[in-house]
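Dear all,

This email documents one entry for the complex benchmark we are building for the journal club exercise. For each entry we list the sequence lines for every component of the assembly. Then comes the predicted three-dimensional structure of the complex as a token string, followed by one or two observations. Please use this as the template for your own entries, and keep the labels exactly as they appear.
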Amino acid sequence: METSVEQRGDVITVHISGSVDGLTADNLQHVFSSEVEAGHHNLVADFGGVDYTSSAGLRVLLGTVKHARSRGGDLRLAALHPEVLKVLDLSGFTSILRVFDTVDDAVESFGSHGN
Amino acid sequence: MKPPDSAPAKVLVVDDTPVDRDTLSGHVQREGYAVDTAEHGREALEKLRAEPFDLVLLDVQMPEMDGPQLLETLRNDAALAHIPVIMVSAVDDIDITVQCLELGADDYLPKLFRPAILRARMSAALDRKRLRDAERHHTESLTRELEVARKIQGDFLPESLPAVVGMQAAAALHPARQVSGDFYDAFLLAPGNTIVLVVGDVCDKGVGAALFMALFRSLIRASADPVEGGAIQMIGGRRTVVRQSLEAATPADLLTRVAGFTNDYIARLHGRTNMFATVFLGALTPGTGQFDYVNAGHEPAIVLAPDGTTRELRPTGPALGLLPDAAFGADEGRLERGHSLFAFTDGLVEARSPDGEAFGAERLRDALRANNTSASNLVQGVIETLHAFTGQAEPHDDVTLLAATRTND
């Protein structure tokens, strides 16, 4: 799994590619925590390159959304593959996290005041 | 296997020529090691089997059992295979020396050696053995610990499923590793004509999931106040008041409260771990066939009719433990006589064949239809079909199944 970080205004987008599972989840968690700790709490996770996520990946999303919201921000998801969206839907993650079709939509949802 | 200690390493020198044997033993002793000798392969084997040795210095050319033969015997013996062997060979023995190395000898030493070379080769072989021994000792300890955990975890599953008139139930849980993050439960609610069925899947795998398995299962059972015991019964004088309020609740009410209580407990007290579980909770009254369920983010359970038609019982709320104060809905149905309720974890449908194909929902439905004669046949049949499908492939996730059939009474 690989990640790259992009900043647009006060929104950080983490582009993820590969599988998010027990082996790679820690790495992803670290990327997100570093951003929040650095003061960037408006986060978008770009799942366009993710073909599979296990419950270890879901834990990272849960931890990150709580962390970001505790700092007044949020974590929003973009470009989910149907299989991944299905997993998030079934487990109720889509009821706690906002999901968007494209990264642009997700970034724009934070508005000009990061809301 | 002896634990690591600091006694001098014990070396066995095997050589049929007395002069060579004595010379080599002398050198080995001068390096500070304990030495014993053997004249030929057979004697060497006897000594190796009688006491622990850390290293063998073996002459390549010997009558009777020669170097390669002894080596093969050693490598095929589980008790002796880990002992390093250094071949001692003359200059023109290079072919046989190579043969020995390919048979598993660790290194070789020329017959005309410099003490410094002997020292270096022995010390390298002994260091490697020490490391391997320590690693093996450590792995054995960990395996023992996990075995203890596995036994204790077994205690968190029902010893037997409750017997209720008008219903037959069966269950199976196959962990992917020694400990499991899946669980199932079944217990009666007062006054004893409704059975609660639970199938749960804690996120992740391994020891962490197993620890939370115990917690989730306990919170669910305790907050449901089952007939044979639960936390509420232990709250002395308040028991009557609390029991009255629980008895007044409908099964659907009870299940949503159990889900809410468990969810809030985990989300509030264990929020830092970000652990959660997907859980199917069903309450079935076999007398009438009425059932209610709360599906908290879990793989849909299946209602199976004798003619093979199926109905899915889909999620009515999120997984337990995500965020406090989550709302859980409930849904219901009626289980006719001869119909079955089948709940399971995603490890079943996601199990892979050696070719990497997933078992899948369709194969599951086919297996259910093919074994639709009783709850135990459903469970057994699906497990057999699954094992035939996965063959020797390593299980990727825990697999849990629970079936309840309303019998034709």
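Observations: The longest strand of chain B covers residues 194-202. Confidence is low (pLDDT under 50) at residues 230-238 of chain B.
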